[in-house]
Amino acid sequence: MNEIDNICIIDDDNIYTMLLKKTIKKLNICDNITSFNQGKLALETFKTHIQTNTPLPDIIFLDVNMPILDGWMFVDEFAKIMDAMNKKVLIYVVSASVDPDDKNKALANKYITNYLVKPIEIQTLLGIAQTCKEMKNKL
After folding, report:
1. Concatenated DSSP letters of 44-96
2. 7-99+116-121 — its CATH code?
3. Which of 29, 43, 90, 127 meets the CB 3.0–4.6 Å disulfide criterion with 113?
4. 128: enclosing H helix or E strand
5. How far apart are CA 109 and CA 138, in angstroms?
6. pLDDT tens-digit profile of 11-31?
């Protein structure tokens, strides 16, 4: 299938990141998966990608609770560079938190596509791949 060219996982849980990568590859959704264990490094990398015209991810799976730059701060900073980007990036906040306030905060942010509770189910991943494919077909 490989509907998605690039996926980025920003999460400080290395075991979860490894399992998510393996699942995405096993489902043949995407082969090019990058990961960062902190939001600040990811943000700096994306800024460099914009300057060098390097492809940005189609999808970002973003953890909320991380050191240095948490998921909420990452989205705030990422929003500042969105205008310089030549593509729409789907951001899925992924958290172990089932707090309705976290979900409501995510869904109220125009840069966040959806809020998902860990672990992401296989059907959800397949649905995200389909959404990404449909979005690309519209462009």
Report:
1. HHHHHHHHHTPPPPSEEEEES--SSS-HHHHHHHHHHHGGG-SS--EEEEEES
2. 3.40.50.2300
3. 90
4. helix 122-138
5. 23
6. 999 999 999 999 999 999 998
